[in-house]
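Task 17 of the worksheet. Students: predict the tertiary structure of the chain below and write it out as structure tokens. Keep your answer in the requested format; marks are given for formatting as well as content.
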Amino acid sequence: MEILIDSDAAEAYNVTPSRIRNFINRNNQQKSFVGNAYGENKHYFVNLVSDYDDIKDLENIVVDSRGPIYLRDVAKITFGEKEQTTLSRVNGKDAVIVQLIRDTNTNLIDLSHTTRDVIDRLNYELKPQDIEIVIQTDTAEEMEKNLNLILKLALYGGLFAVIILWLFIKNFRIIITIMLSIPLSVLIAFNLFYAFNISLNSLTLVGMVLAIGMLLDNSIVVLENIYRQLSLKNDLISSVLNGTKEVWRSITAATFTTVTVFLPFVFSTDILTKLLGRHIGVSIISTLLVSLMVALLLLPMITYALLRSSNKKHFSFNKVPLNNRLIQIYRLLLKSALRFPAGTIIAVVALFIISIVLCLSLSMDIPTEVELDQFDVYVSMPKGSTLENTSDVVSQLESKFTDIEEKKDLISTIYEEEATITIKLKEDFEDINNRTVYQIKDIVGEKIENFRAADVSLTEAAAGSRFGGGMRRNPMASFERMFGIGTQQEKVLVKGNDFEMLRKIADNIEYYLNELETISNVRVRVAGNQPEIHMLFDTNIMTMNEIPVSAVSTELVGFESEISVGNVFKLGTDEFDIIIKSDDAEKEKTFDDLQDIQVLSNYYTPYKLDEFSRIIYSYGLSSISRLNRMKQIEVSFSFEPEISDSKSMLEASRDEVTDIIASINTPEDIAIEIIYDESEFSEFY
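Model answer:
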């Protein structure tokens, strides 16, 4: 809903956009509780509702009681369009991004398939208009791929288990009986999932895949012992009973030792550990407990039923021949260990020491960046940049990336002072030029290295309000670090109260670190200066004429070319934002326009802004980071991959950085702190 003000009429009646905004808000009231009423033994809640649902409601608002003057006298009210504040492009073409949010009761994968069918139909209908709907991201697609991959790996694991069983047991009947325990244990375990309110997801499937190898152990031990009893020419029922009775304590103890390892994770209070431990732990525990019951109860029954129906009266227990090469090697090692116990202990200790040395030589405390098929380029424009200017800069960057052969799509999201360019790679990008994601990132880094029109980086900007800069942090960072993944970032914090001095020292640190060959990139994370206008009020004039500061603030809000009222106009089930515009909104506001702003005193006498204030141009910071009441600037840097992969080289490079920082002369009231990026589990190694 657009309220287009007639500038001449508004000036004649001394009506400003800010006053119109106040009158609209004053006459509109969404549902609010105002009191209680009682009658006929009932208690009534009294609510006040005053919504705009008719254009005449807006037109009849009195903006000046002298007359009276209505809003329709100074403005024209129509349905219009809100000023554009963002742009989207895909491969250089204008785009509109639509996000679908599923209902909580809807299956995400089914919804994805239905949506794709609809999009295919719409693309066919819109093809003559040269319009195409492209799926940018599909969470369900990745989820479905992961689920299919886990199921495929589980099937492969089961197949390999059959092969291993055949190599050692070489009895088809035993193998078939043992393999029955896998589907039985898994399907019965689903009931425990329901009891613990656990859904079937990627985590639970991973837990079940881990449990498949373990759940076969119980069945193998029980079934092999039953066949051993049969080979001793015992009758069938005695063999089944004794074969199970002899091993039940052993397999029960083995199962419960594994269960107790995962049991504490189920009751963890940490949210991330509880998320992983509850899903994976419950799936493993439930599957193993069910497999124990299957091995002790169901499997002996199946074995008895199968063998009873067989015509064979005698059974032989197939032993592995001693001339087997693996058996010979094992016997040789076992005899050597028994004959030379001292030498065996020395060899084990030597292997233990070698493994410790190898672990200490590897850099295990640095997070590893995950190779994805897409990455972002962040663009930060100077403060005060327009949307058109940012769009032109992004177009220049898009042209630089068009020659990357592995590129599938360039997706640009543009705002007034910043933008994000997402580079999506083709599915088989590694086969095109045999380049990894890191190598492609290096190529992009070279292309943006000397770009001067804006601050362009592959890491998040310091003060970006939209893509996670400043004090905001990635909410998934803690989850990623649990698995040792993420982007390695070392930090130097410069702390003090003199911000200009802090900035000089941070710039010096950036210069020195860039000179080191072991450093891949350095970034000073500080917000840049933005143009500002300062108003110095003459308090004497304001006091004598009773001009409140609140009146100045109210009128400054109306200085914008487009003002949002903050309320909505309702038309049926639709809601429209109410926007106030001037008929000269296309004209850029100047310094003179600011000086000519009319401010009303408490006696409704208008005064120009420059009559009681001095207006000057200036620059200032958009934000300043503080910690314990001290200002601070963060200098982040990363080491080259070959440095991060070697613990000795990493420690030497860190010592070099420490020496450089220590050599910098700083005033007594300024402190420098170096924070190296280490894993939370580094104390264990």
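Marker's comment: Residues 142-318 form a domain with the Multidrug efflux transporter AcrB transmembrane fold fold (CATH 1.20.1640.10). The radius of gyration is 37 Å.
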